[in-house]
């Protein structure tokens, strides 16, 4: 398990789950609790919290797919009155439905809910603003991956374009914690689109090293993503030439199709 220090008080724990999913626990060592993001394997989450003598205060869910929301029911049965947040009625054991730009407070933390439909129609990303002590962070579920984006199960290329525009407008130093370890394959695809992209080549080296050591490749930052993630580079000549399109929605649709067949 990887721990990312946010500041003296908060940490993000990255927990691999199922085949290639990530669950996260955001821990507050001052108020002594944790917030679980997409805890599909609740035992793993609760074991870590017990070890750290922290209580589980809330669950936030990015979308209703089983590999993200599949642990909610068990958690709601184990911990009475736990708050379970999400943006879709299909999410198991939901207690609080959130909407776009709604701000939810858990302890002293404020999460801004960003509705990013397309992978699913009710997908929500959760953003915490930075301050003097820490950089901003965002849990992006299956909307934005490192060097990629989610499949368009319940939306169009235009929807994904709008959703990714919301995320790419976040501050460049925003740390991105996504829902799957897809980075290596994503980067290989990115390099098929832009073979001369130095940033992608450098990132590939770093990622290969991390994976060799069995370390997660999260987090990245919005600033990094803008340099090599083709789905955030629709206006770049190289990406337009590769897809043979220049209108951003058409480039997005073409990239997704190419990636699905990659
Ligand atoms: Zn999904």
Task: Describe the structure in brief.
This protein has 262 residues and is of the alpha/beta class. The protein contains nine helices and 15 strands.
Q: Which tags fit this structure?
A:
262 residues, seven-stranded mixed β-sheet, six-stranded mixed β-sheet, 9 helices, 15 strands, globular, binds zinc ion
Q: Structural class of the secondary elements?
A: alpha/beta
- Quickly count the helices: 9
Strand order of the largest sheet: 1-2-3-4-5-6-7
Radius of gyration: 18 Å
Termini gap: 30 Å
What's the average pLDDT?
97
Low-confidence stretches: none
Strand content: 25-35%
From N to C, what is the helix and strand string? EEEEHEHHEEEEEEEEHEHHEHHH
Helix content: 25-40%
Small-molecule binders here are: zinc ion
Main sheet properties: 7 strands, mixed
Q: How does the overall form come out from the CA principal axes? A: globular
Care to count the β-strands?
15
Catalytic activity: an S-(2-hydroxyacyl)glutathione + H2O = a 2-hydroxy carboxylate + glutathione + H(+)
Family: Belongs to the metallo-beta-lactamase superfamily. Glyoxalase II family.
Cofactor: Zn(2+)
Organism: Trichonephila clavata
Structure report:
The longest helix has 15 residues, at 198-212. The protein has helices at 42-51, 66-69, 72-78, 157-168, 183-193, 198-212, 222-228, 237-243, 248-260; strands at 2-5, 10-17, 21-28, 33-37, 55-60, 83-86, 96-97, 103-106, 109-115, 124-128, 137-141, 144-145, 148-149, 175-178, 220-221. The radius of gyration is 18 Å and the shape is globular. The chain has 262 residues and is an alpha/beta fold. The strands form three sheets. It has a seven-stranded mixed β-sheet with strand order 1-2-3-4-5-6-7, with helices on one face. The chain contains nine helices and 15 strands. Residues 63, 65, 119, 142 line the site of zinc ion. Zinc ion binds next to loops.
């Amino acid at each position: 398990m990887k721990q990312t220090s946010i500041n003296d008080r908060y940490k993000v724990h990255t927990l691999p789950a199922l085949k290639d999913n990530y669950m996260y626990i955001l821990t507050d060592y001052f108020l002594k609790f944790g917030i679980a993001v997409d805890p599909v394997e609740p035992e793993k989450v609760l074991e870590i919290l017990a070890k750290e003598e922290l209580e589980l205060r809330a669950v936030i869910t990015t979308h209703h797919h089983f590999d993200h929301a599949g642990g909610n029911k068990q958690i709601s049965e184990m911990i009475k009155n736990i708050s379970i947040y999400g943006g879709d009625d299909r999410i198991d054991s939901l207690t609080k439905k959130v909407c776009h730009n709604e701000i939810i407070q858990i302890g002293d933390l404020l999460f801004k809910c960003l509705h990013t439909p397309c992978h699913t129609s009710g997908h929500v990303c959760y953003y915490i603003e930075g301050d003097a002590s820490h950089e901003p962070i965002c849990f992006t579920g299956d909307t934005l991956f490192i060097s990629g984006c989610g499949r368009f199960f319940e939306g169009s290329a235009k929807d994904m374009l709008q959703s990714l525009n919301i995320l790419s407008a976040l501050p460049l130093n925003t740390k991105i914690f996504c829902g799957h370890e897809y980075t290596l394959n994503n980067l290989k695809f990115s390099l098929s689109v832009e073979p001369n992209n130095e940033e992608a080549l450098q990132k590939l080296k770093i990622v290969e090293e991390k994976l060799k050591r069995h370390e997660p490749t999260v987090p990245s930052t919005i600033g990094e993503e803008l340099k090599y993630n083709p789905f955030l580079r629709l206006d770049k000549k190289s990406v337009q030439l590769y897809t043979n399109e220049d209108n951003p929605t058409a480039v997005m649709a073409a990239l997704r199709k190419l990636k699905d067949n990659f």
